[in-house]
Amino acid sequence: MVDTPSLDRKYEYEFDDVVVVLSPGYKICFINLGDEESFDDFCDDFCEDLGVISDNFEYKEKIGRPKKWRKEVSVEVDYSEVTSIDELMRNNKVDDLNEKRKIELIISLVTGSINDVKKIDIEEKDNLLDIVKNKIMLFDVDQTNFIYDKSKDPVIRMQGLSGTGKTELLLHKLKEVYLSSDESRILFTCHNKILAKNLRERIPSFFDFMQVKKQIHWQKRLWCIHGWGGKGDINSGTYRYLCDFYNYDYETFYRGIDVSGVYFRLAEHIKKNHPDLYAFDYSFLDESQDFPESFIGLLNVSTRESVYISGDIFQSIFDEPEESDITPKYTLNKCYRTDPRTLMLAHSMGMGLFEKKRLQWLSDESWKACGYQVKHDNSKVTLKREPIRRFSDGFDISYSSVLLKDITGHYSNIYKTVLASIQEIKDENAYFGDCERLFRFIPNTWTSTFSLSLFLL
């Protein structure tokens, strides 16, 4: 439920007695809680503003003008007419697939979950892979709350599985923070140089895609650097920059150095000598599981407003999980990159759950944090994941997500089976990058089989 488009803070309305209900598969419902004249003006302004946003992101070709889609896929009702939310939704359920997709695009405009419409068709595709790739991506509740969270907590933690959109959410939050002030100084950091370089290249493209008009002032308003840095360049890393900013002796990195202690000592120096001096107004940390907790403490004492932290739930499949007293404010457990059934197989194999001696087991709380439903039946434990709309809406979900093929006999049967499987997928209109293979290791044959598969793809 919203009362204004979330994408741009400039859209505000004098009339507050209204609720806009947005749900994929249902008409957009404007519910009047006040006087009718002001309500009509609100609906006109809301749809007109969405039309402007639609023009900015080139949605008009897909959804049409507001005057048209307002008649087709929205409804205006008075609160007195609503007996229950169930009845409201039931009366406004949409069955037409094209209208459903139009509604999803409108919802994406309202929530800021902007899709590249050049890669999306309103008409549904006729094969499984294209249906999935043509899905309109929408933020879920947890993702939306993180982006538009206005709390002033000094540290805001987000944790989730790979594929839950953590880095993308950090970029959206970065956009919000960058646009909120012309003077703020912002740090975006991660552990290694390669990821930092990737993020530094990704940020301008993301800002362009999101129609950010403000220029990026690197090393003045925005730093995107890795965790440590070299002595010769103060802007090469977070630790190096903070040493210069707080006039602290930089320690050169070497194998075996107590990294946690280095960060801790600098943080103590800042608290003792510069308690009211802040290097940054906001800090963003991606892949926090790569850092000791002392690094987060260092960011906390050197950041004026808030530190936004993103971390992976699975730190290592070979280590037993450690109980932590730190509870993330946001836990993302819906993986939009992989079909839930495929994800369950990957977790099961990676954690050795099919082996006599498993590699790892999680507590019930940790399983739930990863998006699993846990059911105990004496000595038996059943793990289950809910379907994800991207992989279930619009087509029959009874298809086999994973096919297991037992290969016996001469080793050449491996090649024949792999090649036949690849050909089956290619016949279904797959493109390069659509395929993935899991091989159980067989000496002297695994490498050549895998190489041949990549070559043929």
UniProtKB/TrEMBL annotation:
Keywords: ATP-binding, Helicase, Hydrolase, Nucleotide-binding. SUPFAM superfamilies: P-loop containing nucleoside triphosphate hydrolases (SSF52540). It comes from Marinomonas arctica. The keyword ATP-binding applies. GO terms for molecular function: helicase activity. The keyword Nucleotide-binding applies. The lineage of its organism: Bacteria, Pseudomonadati, Pseudomonadota, Gammaproteobacteria, Oceanospirillales. This is DNA helicase. It comes from the Bacteria.
